[in-house]
Amino acid sequence: MNLRERLFNAQGEPVAPPPSEPPPSVNGHIPAGAEEQAREPAAPESRQPEKASLAERLRESAAAPSAPGGALREQRPTESHRGDPFASLKTRVHRACIDKLGSQLFGAAIDDDLTEVVRQTVEEELTADRTPLTRDEHSRLVREITDDILGYGPLEPMLEDDSITEVMVNAFDRIYVERAGKLEPTQVAFLDNAHLMRIIDKIVSQVGRRIDEASPMVDARLPDGSRVNAIIPPLSLKGPTLTIRKFSRDPYSMHDLIGFGTLSQRSADFLAACVRGQLNVLITGGTGTGKTTMLNAVSSFIPNEERIVTIEDAAELQMQQEHVVTLESRPPNIEGKGEIRIRELVRNALRMRPDRIVVGEVRGNETLDMLQAMNTGHEGSLTTIHANSPRDGLARLETLVLTAGVDLPLRAIREQISSAFDLILHLTRLVDGSRRVSHITEVLRMESDVITLQDLFLARPPDESGFETGPVSLLGELEYCGLKPHFLDKLSANGVNLPPEFFAVDESDLARASVARFRRLGA
Are strands 308-312 and 356-359 parallel, antiparallel or unpaired? Predict the structure, then answer.
């Protein structure tokens, strides 16, 4: 084989001959050493890596499966399993257990017997695989594979951890949690995007929802009421994304919130009287401020003998009463039909003889039907809305009413709002992660074209009190402002009487209020 034949590449394409003269031959043969000298200019050092890498890639492609996309499918697990040395083992054992157990896993309630059967099957398959493992590794793999088959895989330990309040999966290998109001990265990871997608499918299918390319985002819930949101490609560019807002197994009571410093004992007693007295209450706050938790706690003051109808997008409320009807909206099916919105549920609830209507959150045109229900005898209703302040909450209600497509003047909408709601409870989330009630505000009647508000309890910033002696806090305590509410007659008509001493104001409260008023005027 001559020199030019050796310069042919793997694809059979000739390489251009070198510009220099070929080495002289003796009787048709190239002298020793001349071949190497001729090879150097023909294949410079800058081209050698390209030729080597090309040949290497061609050898890999020849050894790869010939099916379309086969090479890609074979390489993905290696790429995604880079951080878990037992990823392939877990995948083999998981598939073997699914094949062996079969129909026992589908449609059966997860109980101790089924868990023990799955655990024994996992141990048998691990032993049959003959992969050398230490005792700790064996126990860990049994637990992880069992959680993956029966539960939610790598998320299971985080869902069992009561100190974690939120789980955020940004990618299969990037998982964050919220603990004590602060975000923390974790070392937990899924095997790959397919593994994460399998867990998402398991979650949403439990509540009759679906997620696919035709419907790439979904709101769902876990059996304990935890809120779930999932979004997948093509909307999520880096793979499936999952967010779980956990609910406590035992709902926080008002006593718990007082212990957390969310509100004071005096304000809690006042809220209890307002709920028992059938006032319509609007809970406002930003995302993650604890509106649903507060709604759960406040609703516990509803008398047990009253009929309660709850309406939500995804059922999260954990009512403690016995006479409760829980309604949940429904998204459209794959054909775009069958959607049941909150607005239809509110209208239907009016025919169910409710004593109380509790709407998890108003965020659309159902606001108009909610206002009409409150203004037509359905008192004592509770709902929440996203807003940055009590005044912003009323402005958002106006905007949502306009989305109903009814051409009403703003003054008529504001009159409906001022007549419907009696009290606004506003929550805020501080930079240290704590959640606080900052306002308990009474909704008065219209003055000109403006709804008048009156703060009954207010948590002022520390610099406004002028009396901070201990450690500096981000927000002062929730204190009574010294003004009697105008709805005391309505409370009395519903059998709730607050004693006069409840509204007594001590001198320290008056001093704080006067200092704060003076500083605001000076500013």
Answer: parallel
